[in-house]
Design goal:
homodimer; 392 residues; Rossmann fold; 3 domains; four-stranded parallel sheet
Chain lengths: 392, 392
């Protein structure tokens, strides 16, 4: 029997504890803190899973939104494929989502929420993939959406947004400039700021990623779940899934979360290395891992706490390693964008014969010798270039 | 209990009945006829389906290939989504396959066969999607593959092939010139001509498309299954699936197959209109529906017979209708390439208030008023352009 969960639970400030109804369209606390969802005790009807829909909505029991306004393009239950190179490394193919990235999980939940609330204007900002997801799902919901992206966003991602009829605004400057422009626009009354960073319902959509891994592996979880980290949506989604599965008695230990950043833009990795609980903006360089080039993630402290709580770690990779990993994955039949290759780059590096080892670093040892799930989050067709031409 | 089927069944000429073992790598009969697979009496273990893998390999019972050399990227069980515009029209999202087209179904079966046979060189020709699928699956199998494509093939498709490490050969001229070049190369000893047109195992992979529709609709089939038709792989795959489901007592009637061609390249539609059993090459013009611009499909008589046997028909759409359909689909959240929009264009046209009607044409009436499944076969990211820029 499915749990009777409270739908559309309130939002609560992680800093001061103030709560807000979702209907208020609040996206940040008056104190400046980011918001989470109040506890609602999700309960999965495990016995019903084999007959559930072949999408992420098979986990509707644990989602905070109503089914009667569900906005869905059939997202989820993406393939989990063993790597050709490592029999204990699985590749979770979220690039096979309707808009070709994992962001669809959160966008489906936010569009469902917006439809229930009767919102008639949404706005998002994005380095690309969250914008394409919002464009598609709000189009499906029949709700106009404005998408702010950096002017240098990949042509494939822009083509998607235009195709879905979004009002695309190209913002000069970097990802931070785009975010700043969006925060201004989000203050307009009646507008839903459908941000994958700020709106905490988004993470509840993303958590289905963790439930799927659990179910597809035969209802267990591996030693390590890797995650590329920029704004941390997938880190937080995984941590939430694992916490819920544990609370329901469906796993007896949660995986370590090993997060990966580009060495060119690594504020979380630097905070981690310094043993900090907060993130300070750091100097960055351009990187081909455009999707995680975030200089000041608003949920930095939450991300660091989630990784620490899991017994995980944060590592970095450079662009050369990313390109090599993209090539290696394509040689296995899986063509992903550079951002999606960072985790594979990191696990390959950790398993290189000559790589430095530290037996006291349990997370790195688990990455090297344990069972590992690597996400492939975005399609190579989005950036539109082969990593290299290998024709003979 | 799964049926014990003969693996790697022989090939048989549809014209003269000569049989060939698969190991012979024969791709066309000495008499010039195309080959089919000899009957092998597939039997689906229906009771085991709920616990089957979440891929097309849940139908492994009915596939002619061994599981122990399975070459898989998790393909299949793609979403089946109701159209926003018509509650009795479902959109089967095969563009969410590993290489972003339905061709992966056949490529997985051919690569599995090649691996079992110990082949060490494969060759294919393609307008694009079959080439990207072959590039990915033979890469996964570790078998070198040469892919011949027209020089004008979409950049996204070429990027995929290069990424997967295929030996890509750009052939000047049209699709027919590419096919001619491939036939020469396919005669080299020891080479598997892994053609989606000629190798009949390919169609057995594609038939899983029909099994999935049946299962996802709750083990029944709609009045009409639409199919874009060029070389007819999906028409023949659907007809095969429906025949097998009927033979196993799993359906009590098969759907009508309504095939769609571009009005700029419509040899099958013209043969159909003239009541012919064979196809003659006809004058063609360029079309944005590049994936079905086939002037002389080698399996023409089989395609016509399959559609006729289903009580279906063949209709045409022009490029303006295709572009409009592509836009309409993207406005529902589904961004597909032009070739994939031809069926939606045709069903939209048939349901236009002012469209001419003929109550005696049962297939068109079924298209207008019945339950219809429309395939979305290839991603819009492959051609890389939005149908139009709709930003406000």
């Amino acid at each position: 029997m499915a749990g009777l969960i409270a739908l559309l639970p309130d939002l609560v400030c992680v800093v001061c504890g103030t709560t807000y109804p979702v209907t208020s369209l609040t996206w940040r606390c008056r104190c400046g803190g980011v918001l989470d969802v109040t506890a609602f005790g999700p309960h999965l009807d495990v016995a019903a899973l084999p007959d559930g829909p072949t999408s992420m909505w098979r986990y509707a029991d644990v989602l905070p939104v109503p089914l009667d306004t569900r906005v869905s393009l059939g997202e989820g239950l993406t393939p989990l494929v063993v790597s050709s190179a490592h029999e204990d490394v699985w590749l979770k193919c979220d690039f096979l989502m309707p808009t070709a990235s994992f962001k669809d999980r959160g966008a489906a939940v936010l569009a469902t929420t917006a439809k229930r609330l009767g919102v008639n204007q949404a706005i998002v900002d994005s380095s690309g993939n969250a914008g394409t997801a919002a464009a598609a799902y709000f189009a499906r919901a029949g709700i106009p959406v404005q998408v702010l992206v950096p002017a240098a966003t990949s042509p494939g991602k822009l083509a998607q947004m235009y195709a879905h009829g979004a009002n695309v605004v190209l913002v000069d400057g970097d990802r931070a400039a785009t975010a700043a422009a969006a925060l201004d626009a989000a203050e307009r009354p009646g507008v839903l700021y459908a941000s994958h960073v700020y709106h905490p319902y988004f993470v509840h959509g993303v958590k289905t990623y963790g439930y799927e891994i659990w179910e597809q592996l035969g209802r267990w979880l591996p030693d390590v779940v890797m995650v590329p980290v920029g704004n941390g949506t997938l880190v937080l989604g995984c941590a939430l899934a694992f916490a819920e599965l544990y609370a329901q008695g469906l796993i007896d230990r949660a995986p370590r979360i090993v997060a990966v950043q580009s060495s060119s833009c690594a504020p979380l990795a630097q905070a981690w290395a310094a043993g900090l609980d907060e993130v300070t903006a750091v100097p960055t360089r351009p990187t081909i891992a455009e999707g995680i080039a975030i200089t000041a993630p608003p949920r930095g402290p939450q991300i660091l706490a989630a990784i620490r709580g899991s017994g995980g770690t944060i590592v970095t990779v450079d662009d050369d390693q990313v390109l090599q990993a993209q090539t290696d994955l394509a040689a296995q039949g899986l063509f992903v964008e550079p951002t999606s290759a960072v985790c594979y780059a990191a696990v390959e590096h950790a398993r290189t014969a000559g790589a430095p080892r530290d037996p006291d670093d349990e997370a790195l040892e688990a990455l090297r010798t344990g069972e590992v799930v690597v996400p492939l989050c975005g399609s190579g067709l989005k950036t539109g270039k082969a990593p290299q031409h290998v024709g003979t």
